[in-house]
## 1
Amino acid sequence: MKARVTVTLKSGILDPQGKAIEGALKSLGVDGVASVRQGKVFDIELAATDKTKAEAALKAAADKLLANTVIENYRVEVLG
Amino acid sequence: MKSAVLVFPGINRERDMARALKLASGNDTAMVWHAETALPKGTDLVVVPGGFSYGDYLRCGAIAARAPVMDAVRDFAAKGGLVLGVCNGFQILCESGLLPGVLMRNAGLKFVCRDVHMKVERSDTPFTRGYNAGQVIRVPVAHGEGNYEADEETLKRLEGDGRVLYRYCSADGVVDETSNFNGAAHSIAGIVNERGNVLGMMPHPENHVEEIMGCTDGRGLFAGLVQQFEKAA
């Protein structure tokens, strides 16, 4: 079973890397970039075949390690 | 004083730390591998040194903070044992939940490797008793992610409880935006936990302890810790 965990910075947390990327995109002449926030994507393969169990495992993974919930939010998706 | 220095893959300041501890206490320091599940018997002080544990993968300190030895450190701290985390060690202590907040990318995005000044906010703690309150000391920093951040509530508590022990300042002790080279909230260089027995700091006092290093301002921290145990003994 394939799954994806997306980790993003909470709103209000300063993101200097996102700012630098935003500046670079603007200097490359990419039109209409209002702002950029960067984050992380984890593609995970699970042995589980039960969707509920898979989601619970992914949530545990995100809470215990993948995200620092002081500054980051995460989203869990089971892709099937 | 019996000290234990934790060793994780990618840590690189553990020998500097052990040398500074030996210089101050006269005792050899135990080097404790991350996979250990217990600290050496009779340990007075645990030090989490600087470096780049696990190559800073995922987040600085994130993987080291989940190592088996950290459970032993958590137990040790819960019993009132003294824990000092420097640089990556500070990041590891934040990630492990022993200290609040987080170390973010430096506001200027650059890795900063130079001497900075910091002010000792109070002298009545085991980690600062070797200094006078208000004293300005010169210490090296070497980090890309030392920008301390926490939510407003946490910052208010840290300040209200006098838990900011070290703060970046100019050579003459002025705390302002210019001296706050990494953008840390409230110019924070070092904080303690609620109980006051766990200190995390970004600068490297262990690298300013011998004449040959060009400065000995870091000695006070180690001398103070040694004094603490002499007093207790």
## 2
Amino acid sequence: MWDRNQMAARAAEELEDGWYVNLGIGIPTLVANYVGDKDITLQSENGMLGMGPFPLEGDEDPDLINAGKQTITELPRTAYFDSAQSFGMIRGGKIAAAILGAMEVAENGDLANWMIPGKLVKGMGGAMDLVAGVGRVIVVMDHTNKHGDSKLLKECTLPLTGKNVVDRIITNLGVLDVVEGGLKIVETAEGVTEHELRAATEATIV
Amino acid sequence: MKKIYDSAETALEGLLEDGMLIAAGGFGLCGIPELLIDALVESGVKDITIASNNCGVDGFGLGKLLDTKQIKKMMSSYVGENAEFMRQYLSGELELEFNPQGTLAERMRAGGCGIPGFYTKTGVGTVIAEGKDHKDFNGETYIMEEGIFADLSIVKAWKADETGNLIFRKTARNFNPPAAMCGKVCVVEVEEIVPTGSLDPDHIHLPGIYVHRIIQGEHEKRIEQRTVRTA
């Protein structure tokens, strides 16, 4: 079974040299630590390409934050732009991939990650635009919820962020692709058998 | 025509009306028009609808206008940082129209460009698409979203010249240009007004045609999530 960092490292293998990529909050943020020698430019949807690491103490700039409102830094390649242009490049398919977390993924690629009815609704932010617009949507999440129930479902029960949008799912148990008719196992995590992965999955595995 | 005013209060004179639609720039607390928000609080204008990505935090930014109950409705993509917002929303005092972030930005830009509606894939198959016109292009389904035409825009820039040409700084640009474009009247607050001719014309982010009134002032620029790394 993979831990958070191993999941992030596995997700980083998905990225190809020269790609412009948007990373979501949580485990996806850790992916930046594992890109190695690949030339990857990170987009922050509040208006920046070429996002750098967090600043050293004392170097924080209130005019320089990421989409999670955290202070960050710029790089030699950095470019700034407004929100309309930022989502123009997202909607226009210029961002090669988005890596993001999820509450539920269905076997047809439906994604739910923004709202639990009856709980406080904070909003979708840029998630709906990202999953509708980027080239490849890669979900990184735990395979099951805290009750042990599968998060890979036949159908999502929560309100959707996007319909038919997920390409690949990386969980603590392995890697699955959304294909015609259901999910296809690409690989299993170290120490996880295919039988165990199937047993933990509600979605149809083809 | 003189665009420079000596205070946020005088810059808003004659522009405010109860029930109006205001587009505000900023992302979180970054690049928000702090001085104009304070002046709106002082003015007492009420029942306003605000198109803004967020609604500040408790007691700061647009959160101040929540405390005084001047906001009737918010058009936003994310409102998670604000307990008073949630209280007013759950008690039915405040209306909320969720917009995907890119849709909100494009609705502002479109309004400013005279485009009343456009089609986007964002939100197809979700609650956002309910009741909206659907149309297929090249085998894919899109929904129609409407341009925002605001009565007033309040934005924050870094520098302005005396004709209203604007330069923004880093990620504080965010929603400010599209918000500025979609208002009938746009009031801008900046950190520095510089003499006309001192900005490089090739470096202007938003031309002064979109800017009607300008004020200069001191900004608190509060940081929402101070995050640092160790050396």
